Amino acid sequence: MSTDANARERDEASLEGGYDPEAVESRWQDRWVDAEVYAYDGDPQRDPNTVYSIDTPPPTVSGSLHMGHLYGHTLQDFAARFQRMHDGEVLFPFGYDDNGIASERLTEKELDIRHQDYERREFQKLCREVCTEYEAEFTDKMQGLGCSIDWNNTYKTIEPRVQRISQLSFLDLYEKGREYRKKAPAIWCPDCETAISQVEMEDDERHSHFNDIAFEVAGEDPAREEFVISTTRPELIPACVSVFVHPDDDENQDLVGETARVPIFGHEVPIIADDRVDMEKGSGVVMCCTFGDQNDIEWYQAHDLPLRVAIDESATMTDLAGDYEGLSTEEAREAIVEDLDDEGYLRDRWEITHAVQVHERCDTSVEFRVSKQWYVEILDHKEEYLEAGQEMDWYPEKMFSRYRHWIEGLEWDWLISRQRDSGIPFPVWYCTDCDHEIMAEREELPVDPLSDEPPVDSCPECGNDAFEPEEDVFDTWATSSLTPLINAGWDWDADEEEFAMDNPELYPFDLRPQGHDIISFWLFHTIVKCYEHTGEVPFDATMINGHVLDENREKMSKSKGNVVAPEAVLSEYPVDAVRFWAASAAVGDDFPYQEKDLTAGEKLLRKLWNASKLVDSLAPADPDEPAELEAIDRWLLAELDDAVEELTAHLDAYEFAKARDRLRTFFWNTFCDDYLEIAKEREDNPSTQYALRTAHRTFLELWAPFLPHVTEEIWQALYAEDGKLDETSIHVRDWPAPQGYEADLEAGETAMEVISALRRYKSENQLPLNADLEAVSVYGPVEGFEDAIQNVMHVRELDVLEEPPEITTEVAAIDLDYSTLGPRYGSKVGDIDAGIESGEYEIDDDAGVLRVAGEDLEDDVFEVELERTYSGEGEMLETDSAIVILE
RNA sequence: GGGUUGGUGGUCUAGUCUGGUUAUGACACCUCCUUGACAUGGAGGAGGCCGGCAGUUCAAAUCUGCCCCAACCCA
User: Which residues does the annotation say bind ATP (predicted)?
Assistant: First the structure.
């Protein structure tokens, strides 16, 4: 058995052999969870500024993990891991959203049951059982992403504690006067038979017909016989309550004040002027039905029109529809059109495609129904919510405009009651006599009015002793919008008679991550709720991630069949490589998933692994710091300081792509390609040994947020002390800080140029890179780096020249500094350019000026570029700041 | 239809807010090279005039206007 296999057998981190991500990654994932490396030790006394808390929107457990989850959570994890190292204490919780229609349907399907057959609590119990299995699977997958979630801090949106918080939230907003129950037109889904909110609607293109229907003008001596109305919904004419004409519509002005007779049904309705009529559409005359669309509702309210309900809660025609009673709206539409045609009222009919508003869950087109519903008042606080949004830092900033536009476009208060069985019940009863609202006692929550008794024996309003329970449940968003309060342990303190949090140090949360598609409802609703409860904006910052598209930049969708499953990706590539890819896009940008991008990550892991092996072979693990570092080593550490500083700034600003690229370039090009090659020639040098190890440790720490597995493996193999993992893990170390190394960066840069020039020389002359060079002279600032150049390029004799070598020069070009020249000479710049181009200029070295186009240019605006010709022995190589002579 | 965001070599992308003239890097491509870790490596090379048009300016990928295309949000 090889040492390699032995090591793996013992489950110990080891640098033997090649990197084996498959074995290493799952091993660390398990250990991190077992050792609770990412556990948050809650301490209410802690200074909130030293805790970094994340509030993440819980995913629906019944859905499977998709690339969006993978991407979103990976970004959150970059922030969490960086902050954990940088600031110390991090809360990265996790929630399972199992409250809602999705998990209800899942349970029905899984157990082959109908929720109607069960009492609500019973059904919810079944839901929780079914969801538990899915949650376990989801947990596994999440842990497979290497996210540093605190698995001790999880919640489910249907669990009793969350139900209690939801109901407390309802009571609190009720007491604050932010909620009301009102009989009013509401958006209604006839398939789900529930009211829904504005956010649950979406538009869908549907085929339909426009019907031109003739209405007679009633009364004696009317202005004209009839007029025509175009409608896509003839089944609504029994619900017609008025006809509208625009006040500026000269052609139809004669109708205003008249009475129209509705065809077939024969009832008469007034014709009214209103500027909400769209004159461009159809004949300019429109009917108002209760209710066809939102305009109808406005008219109904503005003109105090009667209510005619022709369609019931299941989209079936009512008795108002006469002969059509009992038909579905679809059937009624066809039947009515046919009868209109028979009776000569149908003047035209043609096919169209138009957008209809549908319920996003079931794609059923919505109706508007008058019903008694609970609302959260939001329209009167639009300004405040806008300000709350402004107070947050948005990453990227541009996403704020989506939030702003959403709020500006709000037209409805938030409808929070749903006529569903499963969900969190309203803790309310009503007096059967006076309809007085009886709220549950806070201590009793969570309650279910369907099975629990109200807290009073008789109505405090009228003394009646019979009550009716509220059957409705909360909109799931009413609960999902409480996640910051759930995470902070918000509850009613009965002794103090006020709301309090178990962990107030977490609130407001430092970061709220989410996709750009849910800004308008999830983020918005969360701000509404938390702001109303606490008076504070719940988040300091929000990070909006883009969407993962397919390789052709198209949105992934099941119908297109272009969905890439995370499982498929993770079975092929290391998680660390996938994370490296996830860091490649600017936060907020959509970006394509391209398999080839993952190989870049794989290559980096291999490079990091191999470089670590080399470092390990070149220097003892923990060398002492020499009194004085040599120039080349000090140079590396000074460059490292710069990198650390920039990287920290990038990560602080959620600029993961910039951090990733900066670190990769520095690690690969500067450290591996330049410094390691030099270090190979300086093996026993204590200065180099110290720099090597210092840089290597720092690199592992800097890479750790991006590549948690490979860095942990190398760290544990080389540097970890004995002890428990939650203390020795690289992920709980302090983030590197610049050490203040000072070096001659110019000399270092010049030395690298010289090395590069010599490499190019060998390459062009088809020499191996380790071929000996007899003698090399350098003219340029490379002080302190002579040995480095000499050793790494195998130069037998290196000479640093005090004076320029024997070269003759002639002017090759004149470089102008336009940023200085432009403002100074303005429109003369064109002439100056032309003069230089044509060679009509004179350089006066003594005066230090360039005479061209009648101007004397000062020496700060131009630079003479010389063509050098070497007239001595050997060959000359030029770099930006040095001249190299090879003999 | 309205709004938002974006359109940079074959692909992905930096730079655009704070205009300055040789536009960043990676992948792919071509040539060469076994440097004591990595050939899944290294050294080089070719390849774009920055969606289109017009304008502002001495100067525009960068500012303004219009147009085209794409995605998203809202109708």
Answer: 558
Nucleic strand B near CB of residue A594 (< 7 Å): yes
Model confidence over A59-81: pLDDT tens digits?
887 767 888 889 999 999 999 99
Are A602 and A543 found together in one domain? Answer: no
Q: Which nucleotide is nearest to A295 (CA to C1')?
A: B75
* Residue A196 counted as domain residue: no
The answer to whether A603 is annotated as binding is no
> Which domain covers residue A400, as residue numbers?
176-189+369-476
Give chain A residues 367-426 with Cβ within 7 A of strand B.
398, 401-402, 405-406, 409, 411
Domain of A51, CATH number, reads 3.40.50.620
Q: A597 and A716 in one domain?
A: yes
For residues A673 and A572, is the Cβ–Cβ distance under 8 A?
no
- Cα A567 to Cα A560: distance, rounded to the nearest angstrom: 19
Q: Is residue A52 part of a domain?
A: yes
The reported pTM is: 0.87
Q: Are residues A597 and A661 in the same domain?
A: yes
Query: Residues A503, A428: one domain?
Result: no
Nearest nucleotide by C1' position to the A817 CA atom: B20
Distance of A397 CA from B17 C1′ (whole Å): 11
CA A546 → C1' B6, Å? Answer: 12
Residue A364 lies in a domain: no
Torsion of CA A323, A326, A328, A332, to 10 degrees: 0
Angstrom distance, A595 CA to B11 C1': 12
List all residues 6 or more positions away from A279 whose beta carbon is below 8 Å from its beta carbon: A246, A248, A249
Residue with tokens 């960086």: A82
Residues A172-202: tens digit of each pLDDT: 999 999 999 988 888 888 887 888 877 777 7
Which residues 696 to 735 of A reach strand B, CB within 7 A? none
The reply to whether A68 has its C-beta less than 7 Å from any atom of strand B is no
Residue A168 CA to nucleotide B74 C1', Å? Answer: 33
ipTM of the complex: 0.93
How is residue A417 written in tokens?
Answer: 């009651």
Helices in A619-672 by DSSP H: which ranges? 631-652, 656-665
Looking at A582, A609, A625, the residue that finishes a domain is A582
